[in-house]
Amino acid sequence: MLYAELKNVLNTYIKDAEIFQKSIIAVTSFPENLSQLSAGESVLFDRLDIVIFKKIMQHRGLESIKNHLYFSDYGVSKFTETEIDFSKLRYGIMPKAKYTTSEKYWVLKGAKNHLTKKWIKDHKAIALEILNSPYYYREDFSFGDLEIMERANSLNGKGPGNNTNWVTIDTNHHIAVVIEELSKIYGS
Questions:
Q1: 117 in a domain, yes or no?
Q2: How far apart are CA 89 and CA 162, in angstroms?
Q3: Which of 21, 46, 63, 147 gives a 20 to 30 Å CA spacing to 161?
Q4: pLDDT tens digits in sequence order for the chain, 188 residues long
């Protein structure tokens, strides 16, 4: 449905309008709210943003404007805890990672044993889960992927990191994936 709507807007308003030299297609399919994830859970979400853009770029009826279309998304740090009252959080912010693949957003959430106050799934366990998964791109793909490998294996003095470190890791990896995909779309 989103694809059909976007195609309709481009055909109706953009395609023949000479005033548009560039059109940025900014869309995201990253979940708005991650609070439905249980502690310790790992969930895959369909990554429709790039899929829709690829379909638009392959649509024959829009060939005349393809060189004027640009992709933008909101990344994986769209969800923030800025509106959360931290004083009301019983167990604090759980460790989490948001790992982008070509077709999915993979969200991994940490877990704590509330009786012992020890982590069951911390940032290191999350890094190991990504590293040992078929989704892991490899340590030479991006700075973020190198960080995941180093944090999973405690290399180069790297600890597991914290939520701030992981925003950097997640975002860097996401940008590298988007650049790789766009280079394929544009044939570079």
A1: yes
A2: 17
A3: 46
A4: 778 888 888 878 787 777 778 888 888 888 887 777 888 899 999 999 999 999 999 988 888 888 888 999 888 876 555 555 555 556 567 899 999 999 999 999 999 888 888 888 999 999 999 999 999 999 999 999 999 999 999 999 999 999 899 999 999 999 999 999 999 988 86
d(CA 168, CA 158): 14
The rounded distance, in Å, linking the Cα atoms of 97 and 123 is 8
Q: Could you write out the DSSP letters of every residue in 93-116?
A: PPPEEEEE-SSEEEEEE-EE-TTT
Task: Label residue 154 left, alpha or beta by phi (over 0 means left) and psi (-120 to 50 means alpha).
Answer: left
Looking at the structure of the chain, the number of domains it has is 1
Q: Is 99 exposed, middle or buried (0-12, 13-18, 19+ CB in 10 A)?
A: buried
Pairing of strands 23-26, 111-112: unpaired
Of 108, 89, 85, 91, nearest to 169 by C-alpha is 108
* 77 touches 169 (CB < 8 A): no
The CA distance from 8 to 52, in Å, is: 13
Which residues constitute the domain of residue 133?
Answer: 2-30+40-82+89-185
| 112 inside domain | yes
Question: Which backbone phi and psi does 70 adopt, to 5 degrees?
Answer: -130, 145
